[in-house]
From TrEMBL:
Protein name: MgtC/SapB family protein
Record Pfam families: DUF4010, MgtC
Domain MgtC/SapB/SrpB/YhiD N-terminal residues, every copy: 18-142
Transmembrane portions of the chain: 15-34, 46-65, 71-90, 102-135, 186-206, 212-230, 242-264, 276-295, 316-337, 343-365, 377-400, 406-425
Keyword Transmembrane in record: yes
InterPro entries to which the protein is assigned, alphabetical: DUF4010, MgtC_SapB_SrpB_YhiD_N
UniProt keywords, alphabetically: Membrane, Transmembrane, Transmembrane helix
DUF4010 domain residues: 191-400
Length: 426
């Protein structure tokens, strides 16, 4: 009885997967049929019925290859390819349309029909949906390609080179004085800074000045608000009229880093939260309120017909210079700790806060209570956050325009003073 039930269950599952292969093929067929809906029956190379059957055929071929002979799938696939090529050639002779997108879609339908039956149904479904979306958005994809400029494509390829090719090749271990210099982490910082510039460029170009600036500020606050501040300060010189909105974007980015601090503490050492939440929350809310005020008072009067975007969306040279500078700060922080011992915790927090707020936050939360007490850790984290924002305020003041620097520096100083006072009392 158990064997019969097991065989029945296997047969039912196989039938279900074959049915899904049929339906996934029909999904592609619906999209293809909609595109060619004005053609008469028989004029289309492949419509909903053909795609549904090809999906089912792919599932049957994979099943035969698994149970009868391993040659079944490749032979049937080659047969489908040959039939499709004959039909495509006949269509080209009449319509002079040389696109092979439909042919590739038909062969993909055969393949994910096989995947649905013998590999993974969820994977096959995902492939089918992605295929349908790509086929359905022909005009949108071609439109984006037509709007893409040569220097933008060059920047995208360079970003892929430094992130997908170079980054995995670097050693992920500490080197140099005290083992503080990790090539992988430093290059990751360079990639992050370059990515901020890249995302900001396209966010402003696609979403416009107002939406693009605020979106990029929020994104940068989750990764590198320092890079965002540098980028927006430079941008304010190219577009002085955007100074107030760029200042709001910087404040949003700087405010978003404070929820990150609370998240780290909650995950690593929740005992710090009672002492940490008040100063950190106050500092973050203060910057958000200032950003909201600037946006409310400026967005309606913002009139920019054309934004002067940089010709270099990646700004890789700037990212390399800032990465080198931050690596030097990390070495300095290690020397301070070795020289002063536990008394150098605050100096270490201050020096590390310039380079990487995440690293010092994680370090101090892990040191409680074995090496330092909670009060020392909280004050150290707030000092690091203060120095980090003071550094960014300095970047805005020395690089940005007058319309940017005052709107960034004043809320920063006010927020940080309140945070330091609350941390000291805690």
């Amino acid at each position: 009885m158990d064997n019969v039930a097991s065989q029945l269950l296997t047969a039912n599952e196989t039938a279900f997967r074959l049915g899904m292969a049929l339906l996934l093929g029909a999904l592609i067929g619906i999209e293809r049929g909609w595109v060619a809906r004005e053609k008469k029956s028989g004029e289309r190379v492949a419509g909903i019925r053909t795609h549904a059957l090809v999906g089912l055929l792919g599932g049957v071929a994979a099943l035969l290859s698994k149970t009868v002979t391993s040659w079944a799938f490749p032979l049937i696939f080659l047969s489908v390819t040959a039939i499709s090529l004959v039909a495509w050639r006949e269509r080209v002779a009449e319509s002079h349309d040389y696109s092979i997108t439909g042919l590739i879609g038909l062969l993909l339908t055969f393949c994910f029909g096989a995947i649905a039956v013998t590999v993974d149904l969820a994977l096959a479904t995902a492939i089918a949906v992605i295929t349908a979306v790509i086929l359905d958005n022909k005009d949108e994809i071609h439109g984006l390609l037509n709007k893409l400029q040569s220097h933008e494509l060059d920047a995208a390829l360079k970003l892929l080179l430094i992130s997908a090719v170079l980054l995995p090749l670097l050693p992920d271990r500490g080197m140099g004085p005290g083992g503080v210099l990790n090539p992988y982490e430093i290059w990751w910082l360079v990639v992050l800074i370059a990515s901020i510039s890249f995302v900001g460029y396209f966010a402003i170009r696609v979403g416009g000045a107002e939406k693009g600036i605020l979106f990029t500020g929020l994104f940068a606050g989750l990764s590198s608000s320092t890079a965002l501040t540098l980028h927006y300060s430079r941008q304010s010189r190219r577009n002085p009229e955007l100074g107030p909105m760029l200042a709001a974007g910087i404040l949003v980015a700087c405010g978003t880093m404070f929820p990150r601090i609370l998240l780290y503490a909650a995950v690593i050492n929740p005992t710090l939260l009672p002492r940490l939440w008040l100063p950190v929350t106050t500092m973050g809310v203060g910057l958000y309120v200032a950003a909201l005020y600037i946006w409310r008072t400026q967005h309606r009067t913002l009139k920019v017909d054309r934004i002067q975007l940089s010709k270099n969306p990646l700004e890789l040279r700037t990212a390399l210079l800032l990465g080198t500078f931050l690596a030097m700060i990390m070495v300095l922080g290690t020397w301070l700790q070795d020289w002063l011992g536990n008394a150098g915790i605050y100096l270490l927090a201050a020096s590390s806060g310039i380079a990487d707020l995440d690293a010092i936050t994680l370090s101090l939360t892990r040191m409680v209570p074995e090496r330092i007490d909670a009060s020392t850790a909280v004050l150290g984290i707030v000092i690091a956050a203060t120095v980090n924002n003071v550094f960014k305020a300095g970047v805005a003041v020395f690089i940005g325009t007058p319309r940017l620097k005052s709107r960034v520096a004043v809320p920063m100083v006010f927020s940080l003073l309140i945070g330091l006072a609350l941390a000291w009392l805690a």
